[in-house]
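Quick question, first post here. What does this chain look like in 3D?
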Amino acid sequence: MPDARRHAVPFDPEHFARRHAAGEALDAEATFRRIYETNHWAGAESRSGQGAGGDQTAVLRQALPALWRSFGITRVLDVPCGDWSWMAGVELAGIDYTGGDLLPELAARNTARFGGPGRRFLPLDLTASPLPAADLLLCRDGLVHLSLADIGRALANLRRAPIRYLLTTTFPGEPANLDITTGDWRPLNLERPPFGFPPPLALLVEGCTEGDGRFRDKSLGLWRVADLPAPAS
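> Answer (accepted):
Ran it through. Tokens below.
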């Protein structure tokens, strides 16, 4: 079953679908505000969820600076940046960093706590906001929480932006991509329909131990934006 892994997470991955079926209509900003305010994803270290914990990001904190050097990356746009719990441990020397999040209050909080020269935080909607120029868009654990329609809008928005590379979450072992209500969760394999991405230029396997190892294929895949297939008409 394509959704066999969905329920091996410490939260209800269909919560917002149930609320929608019960007649509750929330836009994306209200949805993610509720997630953050209630710690819906049950993160012990971060309200961005268990995947933002130190044990689940150790590989990435070491690997990202090397990847940026390999591909000549000096400007990084990180959406969604969440509460910036794990990225605070990534070496950003020589990187002009912009973190974006749908919640304006979270962007303001990050600015107050972490902002400085070469490091800024903005309220950004990945599906609609004009995206600032960057060499690379980092979108970790973002698309997995969006409906297929919202992912399509996000990718269309990315294609319009002055950004060369996309580095985003993918699960190469996932056989099929389910549709969900935005705010819920499922693993995505971006090389499978309806996305059909080419093989990634690089693949950072995160060493994920969540779900008793069920998500060991969780990775960040790197693609040139120009190489992404055009959306189906």
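The beta strands are 75-78, 96-101, 119-123, 134-139, 163-170, 202-205, 219-224.
The mean pLDDT is 92.
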